Amino acid sequence: MTSVAPKQEMTPATAALMARRVATIGPHSPLFYDTPLELVRGEGAWLTDAAGRRYLDGYNNVPHVGHANPVVAEAVSRQLRTINLHTRYLNHMVVDYSEALLETFEAGLDRLFLVNSGSEANELALRIARQHTGRSGILVSDFSYHGNTTSLAELTTGLAVHEEFGTHVRAVRIPDATGLDAQAEAALRDQALAEVDAAISSLQEAGHGLSASLFDLIFSTEGLLNVPAGYVEGLAQRVQAAGGLFIADEVQSGFGRLGSRMWGHQLYSITPDLVTLGKPMGNGHPVGAVVTTEALLDEFGGRNMYFNTFAGSPASCAAGLAVLGEMRDRALMDNALATGKFIADAMQQIAKNSPLIGAVRGQGLFFGYDIVRPGNAQEPDAAATKALIELMKDKGVLISRIGRDDNVLKMRPPMVIEHEQAQLLVDRLAEAVAEVTARQG
User: Fold this and answer.
1) What's the rounded Cα separation, in Å, for the pair 117 and 119?
2) Of 40, 43, 56, 417, which has the fewest CB atoms closer than 10 Å, so is most exposed?
3) Amino acid 2: pLDDT
4) β-strands 138-141, 169-172 pairing
5) What is the pTM for the complete model shown?
6) Reduced to 3 states, what is the DSSP secondary structure of residue 296?
7) What is the rounded distance in angstroms from the CA atom of residue 317 to the CA atom of residue 116?
8) What is d(CA 110, CA 104) in angstroms, rounded to the nearest whole number?
9) Gap between the Cα atoms of 94 and 250, Å rounded
10) Neighbours of 324 (CB within 10 A)
11) Residue 185 to residue 191: CA distance in whole angstroms
């Protein structure tokens, strides 16, 4: 059993703020940590709490190019001091940003709808798919989250929602080939694709047909799974052969975080019909998008007067352009590749010295560990995972966890993390793993 350090008490000031929060937004909005952090400032990969203590941010992907990035802040401020309105008037900013963003995609994905969040992007993508196919069936992972609208709640499998799971939705288990040899990996792929075939047939037999599939193609909520070679290609082929649209949710994996590719779907030999974007697009300013083909945009636009008051505003596009500019000017994809490799190598070394650690997962600047019971790499240890997260906070580094068993450490720092900060992260991680390992008894 894992022993857990005693819970820290809130300061009077934090307790008073907590009481005000409960009295306004209620007690149900989640907070990290046993003793919540009151954060008041950020800069780059650093955060500062109300007591003046600094923390290295090893978790947050919304501040993609760093907390309080001055280039993004100045671009938005300058635009707000100039003009900010909706897209029913001509303004070059929405065109400039759309052109710049679409240049990062492969041929054929050459049109977009701008929205305000990942949830809104996924909702719009599903609406486009339903109208295009005339069908309602949706295929998702059996442990996933894609947003908080009613339509998305009905297909949520990775967290608690009150809505009933949609009768028009089928969930499939995503295979994890970690540790398998080539033969076992191929067998697992074939078994998982047979489950996809059965799910599509079930939707067809029930009269729903297949309108779309919706997957995060690095399978982050599921625990950063290492899917078998050919699985994603087989998944996309089956969806599109059944007349459905293949939606790639890039809210977690996109914008160069993987280092080797700008977009997660580019890890595979596939062409999505729709790509949904959110979180890091505006570095904290609410920006999202659906990237698609000219044919799908024209079909949807010809049937619907689609208009979005805040999406595509000059200020939002200024934020988006500044993020792309910072990524280019600071070579942040190269940084994700190099710094991600340094962290991954260090994590492998830490793993060799602790029976707590199962698989090392992820790539680029999205990485994690399976935390397991010593002596049984197949038995998840959620309590030890939570203890590690709390201990890392005490050591001044913020991380979190994911996976169906809450036992995969989740680390995805801002893309501006520097080598010295990465060294601090792995040093503190090594200390925390050693301490929690020593507590085992």
Assistant:
1) 5
2) 40
3) 38
4) parallel
5) 0.95
6) helix
7) 11
8) 10
9) 21
10) 18
11) 10
Are 388 and 433 in contact by the 8 Å Cβ rule? The answer is: yes
Buried b (16+ CB within 10 A) or exposed e, 292-304: bbeebbeebeeee
Distance, CA of 364 to chain centre: 13
Tokens matching residue 390: 């709390």
Adjacent-strand bridge partners of 433:
none
Determine contact, residues 212/135, Cβ cutoff 8 Å: no
From the CB of residue 431, how many other CB atoms can be counted at a distance below 10 Å? Answer: 15
Report the C-alpha gap between 354 and 351 in whole angstroms: 6
Question: 43 - beta bridge partners?
Answer: 46
For 148-194, the pLDDT digits (tens) are 999 999 999 999 999 999 999 999 999 999 999 999 999 999 999 99
Distance CA 410, CA 224 (A): 9
C-alpha–C-alpha distance, residues 358 and 67, integer Å:
32
Q: What count of Cα atoms within 13 Å lies in the side-chain half-sphere of residue 274? A: 32
The DSSP line for 213-266 is EEE-TT-TTTTS--PPTTHHHHHHHHHHHTT-EEEEE-TTTTTTTTSS-SSGGG
User: Is-contact 415 327, C-beta < 8 A?
Assistant: yes
Long-range pairs of 49-52 with CB within 8 A, sequence gap ≥ 24: 50/13, 50/14, 51/11
CB 32 within 8 A of CB 400: yes
For β-strands 111-115 and 288-292, DSSP reports them as: antiparallel
- CA end-to-end distance (rounded Å), the chain: 6
Q: DSSP secondary-structure letter at 29?
A: S
pLDDT band at 441 (very low <50, low <70, confident <90, very high): low
DSSP per-residue string spanning 87-117: TTS--HHHHHHHHHHHTTSPTT--EEEEESS
Amino acid at 362: G
Does an H or E element contain 369, and which? strand 366-373
Q: In the structure encoding, which two tokens stand for residue 49, read together?
A: 């709490």
Helix H or strand E segment including 173: none
Cβ atoms of 381 and 368 within 8 Å: the answer is: no
Angle at 56 between CA 53 and CA 57, to 5 degrees: 120
pLDDT digits (tens, 9 = 90+) for 49-64: 999 999 999 999 999 9
What amino acid is encoded at 242 in this protein? Answer: A
